[in-house]
Amino acid sequence: MISKILFILSFTIFTFSFAQEKKNEKPKFNQELATSLGADQYGMKPYTIVMLTTGTAKIEDKTKMGSLMKGHMENIGRLANEGKIVVAGPFLEKNKENYRGMFIFNTKSKEEAEQWVKTDPAVQAGVFSYEVFPWYGSAALPLYLKHHDEISKENP
């Protein structure tokens, strides 16, 4: 019985140590992928972050606000499908800067990102305002989007 337990324990330790070794192995560099994503030698690239802030418009009409938010979400989807937005989402807590949400745009051009954010109906109506910042992150960031639909049951 003890030899059986020792065997199982040894096998388990071997399995975990093998899995850890595999986990620690650096994946082989893929030049084709790096080039297709616009990666530099560090696997990074410039993006532009747009922070949505509370705008000046106070819209009390719930139907109008619902329509603006629907257009906001549709615009995000369109920009994502076009490869312009790689990350978008709201902040879950209020903050002193009045940041409401964030976009990471797949461009290093602040002007281009500003053109894209201005296509948002909620921005156009003044529900949201925005601030624009250059940012440097992993060139692989856009790859997560192709898996998002696989893990979401519903769209907001």
From TrEMBL:
Q: Does the keyword Signal apply?
A: yes
Q: Which residues form the signal peptide?
A: 1-19
Q: Which UniProt keywords apply?
A: Signal
Which SUPFAM superfamilies does the UniProt record give? Answer: Dimeric alpha+beta barrel
Superkingdom assignment: Bacteria
Which residues are in the YCII-related domain? Answer: 63-135
- Which family does the entry's similarity section mention? Belongs to the YciI family.
Protein name as it appears in the record:
YCII-related domain-containing protein
Species this protein is from: Chryseobacterium pennae
